[in-house]
Amino acid sequence: MLTVKGLSYYYRPDRMILKDISLALGGHDILCLLGPNGTGKTTLLRCLLSLNKMKSGSIEIDGRDLKKISAQKRAKMMAYVPQATTLAFPYEAREVVLMGRVTHLATGRSPTNKDRELADEAMERLGILHMSRFLFNEMSGGEKQMVLVARALAQQAKILIMDEPTANLDYSNQVKMLQVIKVLAEQGYSVLMTSHFPDHAFLACNKVVLMRDGFFMAQGHPDDVVTTENLSKLYATPVCVTKATLYPRDEVTKVCIPIMN
């Protein structure tokens, strides 16, 4: 669904931010983008969302050049889930989710009953319909993040771009968010998410990209890419990738453990 080839971006020609980036994201895929701070992850997301104009390369959605697709049509194909944020006005959660319907409205038109039904359906899918009247700015970080995901679902775009969807969430809410992402992929969504937790690649993703200094060090299946050698090089700190047995199911999974000196 989403194909990126040879993408490069810079603010100044003598300082490249993104260098020859290529990736492919298909239906049911969850791609985890890992890398240290300041390596260009958010800039890449901004290029995919057409907020930054790439200097070279191409981005295609279903084989169509992104530059030739109108902003309104792009919004029907691709939705953005930012890190939980604070809004300037005291909107209720349902109003925030309803904002996802804006791209489907003619200029100056108000949301219809159908738009409200779709917003409610998105909230119900995530189990937060009972929070409809809650003020968004008074909600917890986990609740806000669920509302922002519901807004993306109400937008009815099949590609979800998520910037650290588990940021600032406690352990329980991180797990809930990853479970939601897995279910969405099973339902046909394509998800590209950034994370600072390499374990998330093992827990929820079928693709992973390691990014440092504006270029991709490695990409592929988590079992092949998220290794002791690669992570230690990526973060410039000793990391051990090992196996753990999950009791009582006796399932084996991989975990990432930093090595403290």
Secondary structure layout plus pairing:
Blueprint: E1 2-12, E2 15-25, E3 30-34, H1 41-48, E4 56-61, E5 64-65, H2 71-77, E6 78-81, H3 93-98, H4 113-125, H5 141-154, E7 159-162, H6 171-186, E8 190-195, H7 199-204, E9 207-212, E10 215-220, H8 222-225, H9 228-235, E11 239-246, E12 251-258
Parallel strand pairs: 3-8, 3-9, 6-7, 7-8
Antiparallel strand pairs: 1-2, 1-4, 4-5, 9-10, 11-12
Helix pairs in contact: 4-5
What would your notes on this structure say?
This protein has helices at residues 41-48, 71-77, 93-98, 113-125, 141-154, 171-186, 199-204, 222-225, 228-235; strands at residues 2-12, 15-25, 30-34, 56-61, 64-65, 78-81, 159-162, 190-195, 207-212, 215-220, 239-246, 251-258. It is an alpha/beta fold and 261 residues long. The protein has a six-stranded mixed β-sheet, with helices on both faces. Strands 2-1-4-5 form a four-stranded antiparallel β-sheet, covered by helices on one side. α4 packs across α5. The radius of gyration is 19 Å and the shape is globular. It starts with a strand and ends with a strand.
